[in-house]
Amino acid sequence: MRRREFVELLGGAAAATALPFAGRAQPGTRVRRISVAMPLVEDDPQAKARIGAFVEALQKLGWSEGRDVLLQSRWNLGTTDRAHKDATELVALAPDVILADGTTVVAAVLAVTRTLPIVFVNVTDPVGGGFVKGLARPGGNATGFTLFEYSISAKWLELLKDIAPAVTRVGVLHNAALTSGRGQLGAIQAAAPSLRVELHPVDVRDRAEIDRAITAFARSPNGGLIVTASVLADQHRERIIALAAHHRLPVVYPFRYWTANGGLVSYGPDLVDPYRRAAAYVDRILRGEKPADLPVQAPTRYELVINLKAAKALGLDVPAPLLARADAVIE
Length: 331
Description:
Oligomer: single chain
Number of domains: 2
CATH architecture of the largest domain: 3-Layer(aba) Sandwich
Distance between the termini: 36 Å
Number of strands: 15
Strand order of the largest sheet: 10-9-11-12-13-14-15
Radius of gyration: 20 Å
Strand content: 15-25%
Shape: elongated
CATH superfamily of the largest domain: Response regulator
Structural class: alpha/beta
Largest sheet: 7 strands, mixed
Mean pLDDT: 88
Low-confidence stretches: 1-28
Number of helices: 12
CATH class of the largest domain: Alpha Beta
CATH topology of the largest domain: Rossmann fold
């Protein structure tokens, strides 16, 4: 994991724009420190887009890097064998607020501190994970923005059958070690009988298991995949998309940027928008409010994105009603 105590961040989801960060506080000003715990690597375009959106929103709220706020970032913190060590080092910086992305990252940080204020984003089940006591009144040192409800996973199965009706075997890529992985799989299992598909849960913990599992599943006909949301899947999304294309498997993905990178179809929330919304919570905490009193918020919008180029490569004719429902179509 590469580290910089003070980092210049790039913003913009579609095209990054350099931000005027001095990286040094002005004399006589009380400088607030925000630590950012990110599960992705520093040069991941998604990481840049998310952090850039957060910084831009902070600037609109009146916070200026180098004058009254400094950012301290830790990258790739979701790696399980070093998450606790990385979280401990981050907490030792004694920031005023920690912005943490994803269930694995938040769990690691909360294992180290129950006092420093934490604003989380993209967490599936903060109550089940023990991060907050309740959504309306979190009651502890953490609050933030959820990823989605588990019920959305059933829609992924429906979507797979809509776009590839011949599919009768469905592999579900998930991490059984995570509460969110089990929750997403459970919703898919509940929907499977009515759609007359045979489910094959595929528990994966690293890239080698991903390669083996997808290759083995593809040996039998009439198969399709669902990739559930996890840090591991995000870290290896290019490999998963490439394997699916190689084995000619129709796959439903959880987020838009998978489809933009060549995947067939995705349905899920925008992962950049919570960073914009998180800036408002960070601002309120820096001005004296407590995470315990700030309600956890859900996504405000879900996106259906279809990649027609990927569909054509698989020999699929996307039904007109499905195209009409899409929020974006990639030609």
